[in-house]
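Researcher: Here's the sequence for the chain we discussed earlier.
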Amino acid sequence: MFSIKFSFKLLLLLTISTLIKSDTLNCGFRYDNFAYTDENFYKCFVHNPEIFNDKDVLIDKVEGRHDVDKTNDNVTAIEASRVNNFPTIVRKNFKNLEVIHVSYSNIKEISSQDLKHFPKLRLLFMQSNQIEYIYHDLFSYNPDLEIINLSYNKISHIDKRAFSHLEKLRVLHIDKNDCDDFDVPPSFSREMTLKIIGFIERGSCQSSAFSTSENPLIAKFHALEQKVKEQNEEIEDLKKQMKEREEVIKRQGVIIKDLLQAFQNGTFN
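Model: Thanks. This is the structure I predict for it:
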C-alpha cells in the first residue's frame, strides 16, 4: 500500500514538473535613471526578452554579474523590449521592484492581476505597445505610482477611476492614443492639480500629457498660456480699432460722395 501511494506521489510530482517549464533570466545589472527623475535605480536590463513570451514559464535562475555586495533583492528596476507579455513572471525573483520599463513591445493587455505582485511600483513605462483598454482597477495594488507612460499605444478607452486614488502621481502620459472619452479625474484638481500640456483637443488623448505643478513644464505652460491670452486681447483690440476706422472711412466716403454729387449738379456752394 505504501509503495502504491509513494509511486502515485512520485508520478504526480513528475507530471507537475513536466508541465511547469523553467528557464533562466539573463540580466545586465547596473545603476540607471529614467525619464522625469534623477534618482538612480539598480536595474536588470534583460538580455533574453523572449523569456516573457510564455506566461507559464518559471524563472528558476537569474544570471548576470551583480555589483559588489548586491543581490536580486537589491534590484529595484527591470527593463525589457520586444516582448509579448507583461513580465509578471519575475515577481519571485525581484521582490522590490519600483520601476518596470517594457516599451517597444507587443503587449496588448495589462491587468491589476499583473501589477498586484509589485506593490512598491513607482514608475511604469509602457509606451509603444499595443494596449487597448485601461480599466478602473488597473492600479488598485499600486498606490505609490508617481510616473506612468502609456503613450503610443492603441488605447481606445480609459476609465478615469484608474487614476483617482493615485495621490503621488505627478506625470501621466497618454499622448498618441485613439481614446476620445477621457476627462481629467475630479481628484486631480483636488490635491494634485494635474495640468494638460501641449493638448490639441480637451478630452482627447491625441496629444495630451498630464503633469503636476512639480514639473517645470507647468511654469512654461502657464507663461505661454498667459502670453497667448494677452495676444488674443491685443488682437481683439486691433479688430475693434479696425472696425471703428472702417466706420469713419465709410462716413467720410458718404460725405465725399455727396460733395462730388453736389459739385456735378452745380449746387456746391
